[in-house]
Amino acid sequence: MGTVNAFGDRLTFSGEVFINPSATRQWVSVKLFALSDDLDDRSALTAMIAHVRYRDSYAGTGDRDMVTSTAPTS
After folding, report:
1. Alpha-carbon distances, residue 43 vs 5, 14, 48 (angstroms)
2. Distance between CA atoms of 15 and 50, rounded to whole angstroms?
């Protein structure tokens, strides 16, 4: 879907899995990313945290919410 600025095609958002068990009032959102083989752990973490699809406030405003949220910069 999208790539993070400084990391180009080395990190790509591939989707999200939303888990909402009916027996609880808790939910889990799992963000899925494809990583290039040449990214080390620190670079991969930096790229994910900076990626617009990772930083979601769950405020229900769609992509605009993710773009305007404050997040660490790489």
Report:
1. 13, 18, 9
2. 16
Q: Is the pTM of this model over 0.90?
A: no
Q: What is the CA radius of gyration of the chain?
A: 13
Do residues 44 and 51 touch, judged by C-beta distance below 8 A? no
Task: Copy the structure tokens of residue 70.
Answer: 């404050």
Q: 3-class SS at 10?
A: strand
Query: Residues 55, 2, 43, 7: what is their CA dihedral angle, to the nearest 10 degrees?
Result: -130
State both tokens at 51: 């990626």
For the stretch 13-65, pLDDT in tens is 899 899 998 888 888 889 899 999 988 999 999 888 888 888 776 666 666 65
Domain boundaries, the chain: 3-68
Tell me the residue type at 46.
T
